[in-house]
Input
Amino acid sequence: MDSEKRVALELALENRLRADLDALAVRPYAYYREAAVQRLVAKPGTVGRFFSAARVGATIVVAALFALAAAFALLNMRGPSSPASPTPVPASSTTPPASPSPTATSSPAALITVAPADNAIVTVNTTRSYTATVTSLSGCVDLAFVDANTYPGDGTFRTAGNGIADLASDAIITSINGVPVGATGGTGYFSCVAIPSDGKITFTIDSGTANAFVRPVVFYDEPDNNRFDLDANDRPTDKPFGVGGATRFVPRT
Output
């Protein structure tokens, strides 16, 4: 056999072999597995239903696995999350808390009241009692009288223009806290009566002058000059002070 015939024969055999191999092409395993499953599913009865359910279950499992794999891959792409910053703890202060400011307590204002405050009419040589109540004050006070006929009653007092209140001399103080005073049975002005611990000074007044009309006045004499001083507006500078009710002494009938 010459060389040309040999080459032609080899080509023919090669073409035939290629055609046979194409006819016998090897298919992947998945193809045969799917074909086997299809045949089992197609079978009637329990076996077919079992494989049909198994196939659905396997599909769900595979889908879930793919979802988990995708989530895991996404987390890896994002990288590890940074740890949460710790909550700062405030540093403890070594400065002691400030002490509360002391509340200033103001003492009550000094005050003198004289009772009774109502007017009264008594006969001459008949006494009438008064009580002066002195609050938030120590030391002593002076007792005197002003003329009720000229007493303004508006916080001012009558004066001759010398800054001193005009005092009345028509009545006398006969006793202080139950003790008689005055060498002649009384005095029209009593200087520096000591303030008792309870602040109450009880005194009696009397007059032998018909139609005498007076008001007792009790005041804190500062400075101690035995007079009732007034300012330019005729208001007392000797404070505090208190004025009692007016008493008129009328003749006996």
Summary: The longest strand covers residues 128-135. The two ends are 195 Å apart (CA to CA). Residues 63 and 89 are 48 Å apart (CA to CA). The chain has a mean pLDDT of 79.
